[in-house]
Amino acid sequence: MLAALADDPGLLAGSRRVDAAKVEDIKAEADDPELALLRWAAARGLALAALFGPCSLSDDERGELFERLLDDAQWTARHHLAPAMT
To answer: Is 55 in contact with 45 (CB distance < 8 Å)?
Structure first.
């Protein structure tokens, strides 16, 4: 699959369009679009790493990370605790 994509990057055009629409939806709906995009990208990276095999995390470890990505309290508390850097 990767060889085919390397040979013909145009095969990803449809996926890129879907991703671009998803990014726009996230930006429009999220209270903190940058954080929402970061969480989405992290989850996607974990999923793709597991799919293509380079992920050294166990299924349980990966599941725990996905749960943490989904847990808003894990993200909002840090935002409120850390003073803004100027």
So the answer is: no
